[in-house]
């Protein structure tokens, strides 16, 4: 290959590689700039909830453990408890029962009793000696009082502080309802996994968003950028050489 | 091969101990012990209004419940409080008597580091401590400085916050002395 055909070969491939890799460069530049200013752009604090992304990342669909229809809907999942759309602090996991009194929402698990306001603020979380007995096997109410069923008897309290044994059978026990399609759709929308925008931008920058071969694709784009820099420098250097040798001739 | 197995076993033990929950004393036992086995019925203090703001100033966040249970008798109140050191809550039992800390004990430690705060030598620094009134821009502080423990900075900070919180809450009970 003589000098002229080598120059033609390099120019041609310089143009081809530049056009082919332009899209990757744009992605690298935009995502790189964004990652450099993560805090200012608030990428870590911005969550993206999208079914397509959820499927793409293979995140599990939300799993419902129980639904209680009170004065509003209570939904239990392994990770969170939702009441009227609020995530209840300290909640999550299987529940024994849920009841509403005029002042409180009460959620029982086997060993704890959590009390919340109707706005979802935690009032108290009772366990151990704060409960009359455990494990709890049922939760209900009589008028404004909470009723707990345990292997050692049935106990009632109005405030969750003072408990006394009762023998009445007038308790209305909490029972979970099978979720209707509307509840399911609502819960799926509320509980759909979300991803921080920073993670998506980082995965786009590294190529991981495109699967296991994505990083190699971005590696290839980086090598193309290196080749373009070298070929560009070589073309420019050659152009200067020719100008010096033939100052009156136009550059081809 | 035997050496490798032993090393792996030791590493496993170290990892499991580093993340285990250390229960030094059950909260119920601490309360019973404080009152010589005859603990009074619990009382509750609601964290609302001005008190809620004061609590937030000490903890740098809201207390995770709207009411706190405590046990009181004479000029003494007993509190079982929790605060996160780095990642997990540390449960601490605190006895306040005559507006000063009379006893303090780490009951349950769930962090992977910083368990040294449980040592009696460290806890001794808090005994007798009272609360200096805060200013508009600063939350109430202890009337003494507490020496830290290197490697347990966050746990020390959590215990100091809880000691201040117990002293503040005690002031809002009928067991507080003028």
List keywords for this structure.
heterodimer, A: 252 residues, alpha+beta, 5-stranded antiparallel sheet, 4-stranded antiparallel sheet, 6 helices, 15 strands, 24% strand, B: alpha+beta, 5 helices, 34% helix
Brief digest:
With 252 residues, chain A is α+β, with helices and mostly antiparallel strands. Helix content of chain A is 39%, strand content 24%.
What is the oligomer described by this structure? heterodimer
Q: How much strand of chain A?
A: 15-25%
Helical stretch count of chain A? 6
Q: How many DSSP E strands of chain B?
A: 8
> Looking across the biggest beta sheet of chain B, what order are the strands in?
1-6-5-4-3-2
Taking pLDDT < 50 over at least 5 consecutive residues as the criterion, the unreliable ranges of chain B are 12-17
Helix content of chain A: 25-40%
Beta fraction of chain B:
25-35%
SS content category of chain B: alpha+beta
Please render the helix and strand layout as text.
The complex is a heterodimer of chains A (252) and B (178).
Chain A lengths: L2 H34 L1 H4 L5 E2 L2 H7 L8 E5 L1 E5 L4 E3 L2 E2 L9 E4 L4 E4 L3 E5 L5 E6 L8 E7 L2 E6 L2 E5 L6 E3 L5 E2 L7 H11 L3 E2 H10 L7 H32 L7
Helix pairs in contact in A: 1-5, 1-6
Chain B lengths: L1 H18 L2 E2 L3 H8 L8 E4 L2 H11 L7 E7 L2 E9 L4 E9 L2 E10 L10 H4 L7 E2 L8 E2 L10 H19 L7
Antiparallel strand pairs in B: 1-6, 2-3, 3-4, 4-5, 5-6, 7-8
